[in-house]
Design brief:
22% of the residues lie in helices and 28% in strands. By secondary structure, it is of the alpha+beta class.
Length: 82
């Protein structure tokens, strides 16, 4: 169950360029190291997000991503309380 007593929820929201559903579905694929330029032209590898997801899941949590092109992205991390 995902009751508030079992998980701590951390939410990070940005108002950047957002992502298409296809880009969101590719975020955690290790075989497609695709990256796009951000709001200020910055470029990343996507490795940080993969590492975060792996660490969270290895500790009984989960990471969710929602995004809309032109509006930004929302990342929710659920960490299991110990």
């Amino acid at each position: 169950s995902n009751s508030a007593n079992e998980f701590l929820e951390v939410v990070v929201i940005d108002t950047g360029i957002g992502m298409t559903p296809q880009q969101v579905s590719n975020l955690f694929r290790t075989d497609s190291a695709q990256t796009t330029y951000g709001t200020q032209g910055e470029k990343g590898t996507g490795l940080g997000l993969l590492l975060c997801k792996e660490m969270v899941e290895n500790n009984g949590g989960r990471l969710e991503v929602r995004s809309e092109v032109g509006k930004g992205s929302e990342f929710r991390v659920f960490l299991k309380k110990v």
